[in-house]
Design goal:
about 400 residues, alpha/beta, Aspartate Aminotransferase, domain 1, Aspartate Aminotransferase, domain 2, 4-stranded antiparallel β-sheet, 15 strands
């Protein structure tokens, strides 16, 4: 049966489906009629193979405790091998309800209350939340914006912070959200060698690993054999196939001791089996979703190209930061002369747009906005037209 869900121009009504992106504007302090391009989920139907597999599983009618067989791991390992040139072992795998949950479990497993945990702002805001909510302290090795309009790592500051704050744990976002950086092997090696030298455990959130438009994503643990001993690699099809509400992520921990400590925290949290439908969706996505994925990726690339051309032509003072990955674009409004608070107000109340304000990604994000372009082209174009009017 051929893939059916390849019309990415189709605008699908999501209101009234208990959709966080569309149905919760008022509850979250936004005008009810905002156009949302904030949270990182797509406005596309997932692969029809996933759809069919979930429907078929539902027809069985019994939803008792479920676990996976060997076929699940083979589907997962096959995707990692084909797409990321990484050979994974079944004994490395721990399944969790999500990557953010895994980050929180890692914070609890590998640090104590009062410890400092290293991140790189501006970064996905739950990184700070899982640190602070667990009574740890955030330390940021801020990425800096270079003259090439890309973000870079200050390795000198990276090591200095590790030594000064006795860092035990580093939360890496790779590819990086929201800056879009796909770190090179050299950059990952620079950080990895410093972490090895000082005994720092690296939790690498690689949830956007299938969205690379320039360069190549390198799994942190695969860059050097020695990195396997300090790595917790967090993956999920939730971004790639738009399956966030299926609550399933695949975490790889080659070091037995680290895996045991991580697993202990999951057990302490009371998590055992996961969603039967989520497990079904993962296998179908990785086994049969390749055609949908390739077409979706090409469509998102077209949207990214459109945004860059539009901004350059019609939005003076605004820059699209040059990232190499993710479907989230990082827009720099600082050249408009509009203050960050005023900019937020105009975008929300004048343009009636719900984007992600840069300030939630840390102080280094002030004056920026994050926009999700994994949506039909007409929605992306409407968003940009609204921004143009308020500038």
């Amino acid at each position: 049966m051929p893939e059916r869900n390849l019309n990415f121009d189709e605008i699908i009504e999501r209101r009234g489906t208990d959709c966080i992106k569309y149905d919760f504007a008022k509850r979250r302090g936004m005008p009810e009629d905002v156009l949302p391009l904030w949270v990182a989920d797509m406005d596309f139907k997932t692969s029809s193979y996933v759809e069919d597999a979930v429907i078929e599983r539902t027809r069985h009618g019994i939803f008792g405790y479920s676990e996976v067989q060997e076929e699940y791991f083979q589907a997962l390992a096959g995707w990692m091998r084909r797409r990321h040139s990484w050979e994974v072992k079944q004994e490395w795998l721990v399944k969790t309800p999500g990557v953010v949950f895994a980050l929180a479990m890692a914070v609890k497993a590998f640090t104590e209350a009062g410890d400092f945990v290293l991140i790189q702002q501006p970064v996905y805001y739950p990184f700070s939340e899982v640190i602070e909510d667990n009574k740890r302290v955030v330390v940021s090795n801020d990425l800096y914006l270079g003259t090439d309009n890309r973000y870079h790592i200050d390795l000198e500051d990276f090591e200095k912070k590790i030594v000064k704050y006795h860092i035990k744990l580093f939360l890496l976002c790779s590819p990086h959200n929201p800056t879009g950086r796909v770190f090179t092997k050299e950059e990952l090696t620079g950080m990895g060698d410093i972490c090895l030298k000082h005994g720092v455990i690296v939790v690498s959130d690689e949830i956007h690993n299938d969205f690379v438009f320039q360069g190549k994503h390198s799994v942190f643990a695969s860059v050097k054999k020695e990195y396997e001993d300090i790595s917790i690699i967090c993956t999920s099809p939730s971004k790639t196939f738009n399956l966030a509400s299926m609550l399933i992520s695949n975490i790889f921990i080659p070091n037995k001791n680290l895996k045991q400590r991580f697993r202990h925290e999951i057990d302490a949290a009371g998590i055992s089996q996961l969603s039967a439908l989520g497990l079904t969706a993962v296998r179908a996505a990785y086994e049969q979703g390749g055609e949908w994925y390739e077409n979706m990726l090409a469509y998102v690339q077209k949207n990214i190209d459109y945004v860059k051309k539009y901004v350059e032509k019609y939005l003076p003072g605004v820059k699209v930061i040059d990232g190499e990955g993710t479907y989230l674009l990082w827009l720099d409004f600082r050249g408009t002369g509009i203050g960050a608070e005023e900019l937020d107000h105009r975008i929300i109340y004048d343009a009636k747009l719900w984007l992600d304000s840069g300030k939630i990604f840390g102080g280094a994000g002030e004056g920026f906005q994050r926009i999700n372009v994994a949506a039909p082209g007409k929605i992306v174009a409407e968003c940009l037209d609204r921004i143009r009017k308020i500038l």
